[in-house]
């Protein structure tokens, strides 16, 4: 039995480019939810129950129903295109776990700073972290039920962001909404790293 020409042609295999994106923001803002909503693999989570010992340092005002907290990171993966895969690393929200941030930020293309308009001040530290390290980021306002909605420009002014920093509204529970946020991060990071001239 002979082989035809089509039998000798091997399918074109694309090696995807893999990019690392951080997901940061204050305590209880929805980072774990965001990673879980979009990850095509079962996300790795390092959540522990909130305890009485943490009560003096964990401000649960506005998120009283929260019972767990990320103590190391969340990890997920999403394939945006055949040739583009994003690895998502959700950072812990409390200050006492920030020693992990430098390790997680190594090699990151960009970041999402997830914000809650009821506690907007909680994302200042993450914004400052990425600005100081020159890591491109997008602010994603998680539109919680019952929270006031503000135009993107109002959020930009309240956070004193550079004019080029994207601000998008999202629902961290919705896959398509989160994909829109991640595309914004990648596009912004690519523009920020493109050669000028």
CATH topology: Rossmann fold
Structural class: alpha/beta
Provide the β-strand percentage band: 25-35%
Q: Return the string of H and E elements.
A: HEHEEEHEHEHEH
Total number of domains: 1
The CATH class is Alpha Beta
Please work out how many helical segments DSSP would assign: 6
What's the name of the CATH homologous superfamily? P-loop containing nucleotide triphosphate hydrolases
Backbone CA Rg: 19 Å
First-residue to last-residue Cα separation: 59 Å
The general outline is: globular
Question: What share of residues is helical?
Answer: 25-40%
CATH architecture: 3-Layer(aba) Sandwich
Arrangement of strands in the largest sheet: 2-3-4-1-5-6-7
The main sheet comes to: 7 strands, mixed
Average the pLDDT over all residues and give the rounded result. Answer: 82
What's the β-strand tally?
7
Low-pLDDT residue intervals, each spanning 5 or more residues: 47-51, 53-58
Oligomeric status of the shown chains?
A: single chain
What would you note in describing this structure?
This protein is of the alpha/beta class. The protein has a single domain, classed as Rossmann fold. It contains six helices and seven strands; from the N terminus they run αβαβββαβαβαβα. The protein has a seven-stranded mixed beta sheet with strand order 2-3-4-1-5-6-7, with helices on both faces. Strand 3 and strand 4 (84-90) form a beta hairpin. The longest helix is centred in the last third of the chain and has 19 residues, at 175-193. It is globular and about 60 Å long.
């Amino acid at each position: 039995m002979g082989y035809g020409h089509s039998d000798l042609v091997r399918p074109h295999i694309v090696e995807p480019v893999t990019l690392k994106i951080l997901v940061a923001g204050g305590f209880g803002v929805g980072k774990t939810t965001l990673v879980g909503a979009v990850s095509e693999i079962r996300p790795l989570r390092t959540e522990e129950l909130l305890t009485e010992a943490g009560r003096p340092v964990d401000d649960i005002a506005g998120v009283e129903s929260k019972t767990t907290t990320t103590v190391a990171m969340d990890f997920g993966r999403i394939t945006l295109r055949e040739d583009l895969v994003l690895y998502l690393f959700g950072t812990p929200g409390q200050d006492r776990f920030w020693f992990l941030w430098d390790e997680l930020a190594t090699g990151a293309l960009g970041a999402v700073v997830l914000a809650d308009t009821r506690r907007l001040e909680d994302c200042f530290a993450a914004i400052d972290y990425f600005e100081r390290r020159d890591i491109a980021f997008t602010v994603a306002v998680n539109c919680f039920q019952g929270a006031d909605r503000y135009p993107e420009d109002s959020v930009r002014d309240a956070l004193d962001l550079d004019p080029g920093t994207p601000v998008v509204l999202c629902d961290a529970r919705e896959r398509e909404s989160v994909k829109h946020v991640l595309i914004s991060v990648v596009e912004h990071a690519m523009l920020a790293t493109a050669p000028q001239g």
